[in-house]
Design goal:
Elements (H helix, E strand, L loop, with lengths): L9 E5 L3 H17 L9 E5 L3 H4 L5 H4 L7 H8 L5 E5 L11 E6 L7 E5 L20 E3 L3 H10 L4 E3 L5 H9 L5 E5 H6 L8 E2 L14 E6 L3 H4 L1
Parallel strand pairs: 1-2, 1-3, 6-7, 6-8
Antiparallel strand pairs: 3-10, 4-10, 5-8, 5-9
């Protein structure tokens, strides 16, 4: 690394949500710690990329192309050599990445569980029967097909409506009473120092987490062997 002649700064692609930025900056901090040549503030350049998943907020991802829409424009920027690497929530990446892009590394997994967020109309939750705190016919805000299926299996009386947006937006919508409850990844709450907003953290037998939930993944062009090293 000390003799590298590659162009600087290294351009990192990221979504613009508070959680995405926290995760990106955490990964850059890890790089700075382990690679002394990268400790200069001028080495990294943050490129915020607005993805289709961020732009379309009034439809479920499953209806418009799936979770890969949180990465499509980032992949395109990488293949066009506008960025050098990108930091993602791994659960938002496709199983098969586009040709020419590889998963270079991951950070240590955070807590993978989902957190139940209850609003003012709900009762106190019982850790053994957490959904009993939800009133009959309560409206739950979520955009996740996975969460909806498991909730309705446990409580067929519940109603589910679309709730999208960043973590703070979803927390606020529940707190103001627009929804009786919602579910969020506990890892995201922890990374944003909002773990105290989780009413209850659900064990995996109660709410099976998404594949790769809690993992930060980093993508790089397959031909960029120096950066991969």
């Amino acid at each position: 690394a000390g003799t590298s002649r590659r162009a600087l700064p290294l351009r990192v692609g990221t979504r613009g949500s508070p959680l995405a930025l926290v995760q990106t900056r955490a990964f850059v901090a890890v790089l700075r710690h382990f690679c002394p040549v990268l400790r200069s503030m001028e080495v990294f350049e943050e490129h915020i990329i607005r993805t289709t998943g961020d732009a379309v907020q009034n439809r479920r991802l499953a209806e418009i192309g799936g979770k890969g829409l949180f990465a499509k424009e980032i992949h395109e920027a990488m293949l066009a050599r506008e960025i050098d690497f990108a930091v993602h929530s791994l659960k938002d990446l496709e199983t098969d990445l586009p040709p020419g892009i590889v998963l270079a590394c991951t950070l240590r997994r955070e807590d993978a569980r989902d957190a139940l967020i209850l609003g003012p109309a709900c009762g106190a939750p019982d850790t053994t029967r957490p959904y009993d705190a939800l009133p009959e016919g309560a409206m739950i805000g979520t955009s996740s097909v996975r969460r909806q299926a498991q909730l309705l299996h446990a409580r067929p009386d519940l109603q589910v409506a679309l709730l999208r947006g960043n973590v703070q937006t979803r927390l606020d919508r529940v707190a103001e009473g627009a929804f009786a409850a919602s579910l969020l990844a506990y890892a995201g709450l922890r990374r944003l120092d909002l773990a105290h907003r989780a009413t209850l953290v659900l064990d995996a037998d109660t709410m099976v987490p998404a594949a790769c939930q809690g993992i930060v993944g980093v993508t790089v062009r397959a031909d960029d062997t120096e950066l991969l090293d």
